[in-house]
Structures are given as C-alpha cells and as structure tokens.
Amino acid sequence: MAESERFSGKLIHPRVVGVAAALLIAPVATDLIYTETLRYEWNNFSIWLLTAGLILAAVAGLAFLADMTRRRVPAIAWDRFGGFTLAALLSLLNAFIHSRDAYTAVVPDGVALSVVAAVILVYLGWRGWSLRAVSRSGPTGATKFPSHSPEVHS
Amino acid sequence: MNTKLLRAQCAVAALILLSGCDDKAADPSTQYGANPTLPAPQQYILPPMRIALAKGWGTDQAPSVSGGLAIKAFATGFMHPRQVYTLPNGDVLVIESNGPKAAVYRPKDFIEGKVKGLSGSAAPAGNRIILLRDTTGRGVADQRSVLIDHLNSPFGVALVGNDLYVAATDALLKFPYSPGQTHIDAQGEKVADLPAGAINHHWTKSLVASPDGTKLYVGVGSNSNITENGMAVEEGRAAIWEIDRATGMKRIYASGLRNPAGLAFEPTTGKLWSVVNERDEIGPDLVPDYLTSVKEGAFYGWPYSYFGSHIDVRAQPQRPDLVAMAIPPDYALSSHVAPLGLAFTQSSSLPAQYRNGVFIGEHGSWDRSPLNGYKVVYVPFNDGRPSGPPQDVVTGFLTSDGKAMGRPVGVALDRTGAVLIADDVGNTVWRVSSAN
C-alpha cells in the first residue's frame, strides 16, 4: 500500500474521489459493449455513469476543499491533482459527446475518451485516491495526524 | 503543476466552451426546391439549442402579411391550438393539443425538455376540439363551443359524409356529426390503434381523407431523432398509413418519412402530398425539411439516409439494401423550418398569384442560428408540381430580439377562401384575406 494512503486517515476526499473514479472508469465497459452490440441501452448506461461520476467528482472537489480548510492537507500533490482534474474534464467532454443521438455518441470519439479517462484514473488510483503530497521520509504532517487513526481503503 | 497537464486541461476546457459557437448557417435559399445544397454532416459537442423564447402577442399586435393581403385574429384565447379545419357549413374546428409528458431516458432528454419548454412547447393544452362560427361574415368568430372534449393529444381531423374522424395520438376515432352541430356527446368509436407508447417522441398524427372518401391517410412520426431509442420502438412509425374506411384494414402506404406532420391532396391531380420534418443535430443546414408528393410503397430514407442516398452514420447497423431503394423528396423547404401544416389554394379567394399552390405553416427552428421558419410560406404550383421558390406570405412572428410572439402550425382555407392559421404560442387563430 502506498504511503499516501496509509496516512490518509481523517481525510474525506479520497473516499469520494475513489467512487467518482469508479463511475468514470465504468463507461469503458458499457461503451465497448455498445460498439459490439449496437444496442442503444448501453449508450444510455454510459451517459448515466458519466453523469453520476461527474456529480461525484464535483462532490470530491468540495470534499478536497473541506480537507484543505480543516488543515488536513499540508501540501498538495499537484501532479495527481492535475491528473484527476484532466480526467474529470475529459469525462465532461465525453458526457457531451455521449449526448449525441445514436451511433456517434459512442463511436469513435466517445469510446476513445472513455478509454483515455479510464487509463488516467486507473494509473492514478493505483497509488490511492488522496491528493495529499507525501514526502520521501514520510507524510508531511504525519506527527500531527498519528497513524493510529482509522485507515481509509478507497 | 506539470505544464503539459495544464495545457491538456486548457485544451479540453476550451473545446467544450468553443463548441457552443461552431455553426455557420447558410442562406436558406440555397436549400429550396428539388436540389438543395447539402453540406457535409457535422457532429456537435454541445447539443444545439437555439430556441426563440415564447413571449405572446401584445394588444393590437399581429403578424405581417405580404402586399394585397390583410390579417386579423379570427379568434383568440386558446390553449395551444395546433390545427384548423373548415366544415362544409363554414364552421371552423380548432384542435387544441399538446403531447403527453415526454419520457426521460437520458440526462439530455430532461435538459432538452426544459429548454424547449421555454419556447412554449410545453404549454398546457385543451386536448379538445373547439367549434367556431362566424355568423356575421365579418371574418371574426362570434360563437364558440367545445365540440369534443377529453381527447388524448388529438391532431388531425377529417370529415367524410357524417363521420368526423379524429387522429388522437394513440388511436383513430370516429364521431357521428351532423351539419350545424356544436357539441358531440357520443363516445368516439375506435377505427384503428395508432403507435403511441411510453416514449411517443413525435406524437402528432396527421390525417386526411382521399378525395373519394374511401381511404384515410395517417402521418405517424418517428419515435426518436435518429433511432437513439432503438429500432424496436420505431415499428410502424416514420410512415404514412392507409386505412380503408369501410373495413378498417390498414397498411403502410409510404415509409422512411421521419415526421410527416401534414397531409393534403393536390386538387388538380388528386395526388397525396406531405410536409415532412427531417432529422436534427448534424448541422444548421442539415437536413432540409421538405414538401413531397407521396408515392405508394416508396421509402424516403429515414433513418438510414436522407435526400436519396446521403448516408446518416448515426443509424446503425446500416442498411445498404434500403438506402439503395430510398428516393429523394420533391421539394426542400430549407433546414429546421418545421413545416407542420399545409393547405392547397385552388379554392382560395386571395389575389390570383396565390391560387395555384400550397400554403405551409412553418413552426420554426429550435436548433439553428439564425432562426429559420416562423412564418407561413406559399409554394406556387404548375401542372400539379412546385414551380418556384417559397414566398413569404405571413411573417413577423418574431420580435427584433428573437423572441416568439407566435408560431404558426396548421393552415386551412375557410369557406370564403381566406386562410386560417393556428398559432400555438400566440394562442390565436389568424385569418388572412384579400386586402380589398
């Protein structure tokens, strides 16, 4: 388990980021099934997953702000922040693409964006869902937030 | 932050923001007649929503008419009037109607419904037929009654003998009618079920009787823009049905017509014509709505192609076999004008230049800038075929800042040969007559 996650106790945002990411990764599957079957329902599944994922991404943003204002984030992992934001923006673009009618909602732009967003999210998520920067010797502020606080497995 | 990442973010954000301004609409006159200019299809990022906000008419305001014509309100104060129909004794029927509550299958359905609602499309409707009578002959209705109440989104009406047919959204009904009657208590007898169901996207059912009165023709619109609700729900739709009056037998007379919202017989040739609303969201100039004679057994392309063999990639799997059969319509009216009613003018009392052709009510565009339609045009005919570009006859439904005071729908000639126009935003029936 990565350090960023081991010391993410008391942080709210990683729990929400993880769920939002799961919803924004899922359209890869529904888009591929649509591409294979051409059944319109699978495009509708994709657009609802994207919509729900984007709403939760916005909530995750608020949760991150809350964590910042509660002084739980001494330093921000800017690369991860940028990566998650890019994935959210691509998913927003993808939601608009998926609002086209019938085939071109998915093929080729929609499914391509779904794959790109999913790759970014899986790559970032491999190291957990926290945006708190972690120093090489240990998490910044680790003494402030002792490690006996409950761990979050997002 | 990583500058590459930042750049990527800016690019995506800019793409979304800019996509709202990507239409460059052509002059509609490039899309009149048999050979409209058809640009390459485009795919939108943001769905195109360019509505005219519904405003209604102020006191003493009225649409404008071209030279030699006069206009005044025949009657006002309706609840979403969509069609007008003149009975043999001169009484005028006004069909107040609106569609059933639209199903929401996607977030877009919800948002689009809300936006279109601002253009007046969700206004409460009577869902009934009003009878108007002008007893003084001054061109103003002075008597009004509810002829038939509690109908399920009615649209087309046709009288054959003493049978008054009403095309409700889910069934063709027959009511007994005798001349002079102002109210019908009898229950409608069902002649045929019509496609409705949970989605019922294009809900209007247009109706016309053949000149000999033996057949009824019903225009049934598609259940989607372009099959986004699947093909199963398109059974029997995007087609004109023929129903035998005596036996109730029905068959598909012509198909591939996305939304044949108006039907009429051309009087000199006795041929069936229709105004058809074509597909949206592949550009401000695609696909032109059209006026066409309807050939028996013909396929007009929807959803697989338009204007003959122009493929629409959105309809999958494709059907090259059907595209090969698809015939182009006769006469393009330009894109997104939304023709919803037509009336041939051979018995018109308007000046001579309006006596051999067809009036078409263009409800107006919702997905194009600048707006297109929002007027009544006249298409001249010669030997039973269109013979020139459409001419503006009734305009001025929009304010200078692009709000809609009214939107024309159905058109009909009254007993004197003047033109009646149902206006479903202005809630008025207008009457256009010769100026002198």
Description:
The complex is a heterodimer of chains A (154) and B (436). With 154 residues, chain A is mainly α. Chain A has one domain. Chain A has six helices and two strands, in the order H-H-H-H-H-H-E-E. Chain A has helices at 3-6, 13-25, 27-37, 40-69, 78-97, 109-125; strands spanning 134-135, 138-139. The longest helix of chain A has 30 residues, at 40-69. The N and C termini of chain A lie close together (12 Å). The model of chain A is unreliable at 1-8 and 138-154 (pLDDT under 50). Chain B has a single domain (46-434), classed as 6 Propeller (Neuraminidase). Chain B is built from three helices and 29 strands. Chain B has helices spanning 3-18, 107-118, 320-325, and strands spanning 32-33, 64-65, 69-76, 81-86, 92-96, 128-133, 143-148, 156-160, 163-167, 171-176, 189-193, 205-209, 215-220, 239-244, 250-255, 260-266, 271-276, 288-293, 305-306, 310-311, 331-335, 339-344, 357-362, 375-382, 385-386, 391-395, 408-413, 419-423, 428-434. In chain B, strand 8 and strand 9 (163-167) form a beta hairpin. Chain B is globular, with a radius of gyration of 21 Å. The mean pLDDT of chain B is 95. Chain A binds chain B through residues 38-41, 43-44, 47-48, 51, 78-79, 81-83, 85-86, 89-90, 92-93, 95-97, 99-105, 109, and chain B through 1-2, 5-6, 8-9, 12-13, 15-16, 19, 43-47, 105-108, 224-230, 281, 313-317.
Which terms would index this structure?
heterodimer; A: 154 residues; mainly alpha; 62% helix; disordered N terminus; disordered C terminus; B: 436 residues; mainly beta; Neuraminidase; 8% helix
